[in-house]
Amino acid sequence: MPTGTPPTPPRTDTSRAQPARVYDWLLGGKDNYPVDEVVGRALPPQAKDAARQNRAFMHRAAAWLADQGVDQFLDIGTGIPTEPNLHQIVQRVVPAARVVYVDNDPIVLRHAEALLVSSPEGTTDYVQADVREPGEILRHARDVLDFSRPVALSLIALLHFLPDDQDPQGIVRQLVDALPPGSHLVLSHAASDLHADLARQVTEEYARAGIRLGFRTHAEVARFFDGLDLVAPGLVTAPEWFRTEPAPVAEDSGIYAGVARVPAAGTA
Questions:
Q1: Which of 200, 132, 128 has the alpha carbon at shortest distance from 165?
Q2: Interhelix angle for 19-26 vs 34-42, to 10°?
Q3: Does residue 38 register a pLDDT over 80?
Q4: What is the C-alpha to C-alpha distance for residues 89 and 200, in angstroms, rounded to an integer?
Q5: C-beta separation of 45 from 226 below 8 A
Q6: Which of 86, 118, 140, 238 makes the best surface tag, with the fewest CB within 10 Å?
Q7: What region does 227 belong to: left with phi over 0, alpha with psi -120 to 50, or beta?
Q8: Residue 151 and residue 213: Cα distance in Å, rounded?
Q9: pLDDT at 15
Q10: Predicted local confidence at residue 113, as pLDDT
């Protein structure tokens, strides 16, 4: 069940492209504007593949974690609702699961009611907040999630929208440090070293729309998992990450993906 009614959304700015709306267009959604479509059409065709691969990775990782008994999820950078949403995935396995969604885009807030349609036994909540304010996110999340028990922190296709001068490493560290042992970090990130020319083209097109990107190498993405225990198969491309059969269709990808467990104190 939902924990409350989201506040009235602020006015949506349709004069500038927004990452969540561009992502929605790449996924074939309808909740975007011409300014977002302009950006999407300027991107290489592989951008649509990357969006689809990100989404599929999230589905596989969330379902696997629910199968392991994880029943609390904090999803930051939620994006515009696209069924099945994360809570639908996990509550199929654990009906009483609690899910907190976080995003800073007003259009996501406008659709938040779709994110709050939980199973009768479970709970979903939506927080309008910016990942660059992790303390504020954690304060709200604690109203719904029990941080004395494991929590899955989901950062899907989010951190490459934080260039290094916005301290993404510090933000992730603050969020992970709040998680108890047995929690997990679920992360996907655009690569700068797999298809350098395509990465440069994507970065330039987003920059023309006023959106800064910070694609990263495998080693740089791996730093987000420092101190955590990577779950097999480790930090791989999104289509390569799976835990249960059938295996995803093998395909080229410019997206790194991984899941890691927070170890018990003194075992890292």
A1: 132
A2: 70
A3: yes
A4: 34
A5: no
A6: 140
A7: left
A8: 28
A9: 83
A10: 79
- The amino acid present at 184, given as its one-letter code, is H
The count of other CB atoms within 10 Å of the CB of residue 242 is 18
What are the backbone dihedrals phi and psi of residue 62, each rounded to the nearest 5 degrees, phi first? -65, -45
If you write DSSP's letter for every residue of 169-213 in order, what string do you get?
Answer: HHHHHHHHHTSPTT-EEEEEEEBSSSSHHHHHHHHHHHHHTT---
Q: How many CA atoms lie within 13 A of 6 on its CB side?
A: 26
- pLDDT class of 208 with cuts at 50, 70, 90: very high
Contact 191, 257 (CB under 8 A): no
> Taking 50 as the threshold, does the pLDDT of residue 5 lie above it?
no
- Calculate what percentage of the chain has a pLDDT beyond 70: 94
Q: Report the length, in residues, of the chain.
A: 268
Kind and range of the H or E run holding 93: helix 86-93
For residue 266, the model assigns a pLDDT of 62
Beta bridge partners of 75: 101, 154
198 phi and psi angles, rounded to 5 deg: -65, -40
Distance CA 198, CA 194 (A): 9
Question: How do residues 74-128 score in pLDDT, each as one tens digit?
Answer: 999 999 888 899 999 999 999 999 999 999 988 888 888 777 888 899 999 999 9
**Span 198-203, average pLDDT:** 96
What does the alpha-carbon distance between residue 148 and residue 166 come to, in Å, rounded to a whole number? 29
Task: Give the pTM.
Answer: 0.92
Report d(CA 156, CA 153) in Å as an integer.
10
CA 128, CA 140: separation in Å to the nearest integer?
Answer: 10
| Secondary structure (3-state) at 17 | coil
Helix axes 86-93, 46-67, angle to 10 degrees: 30
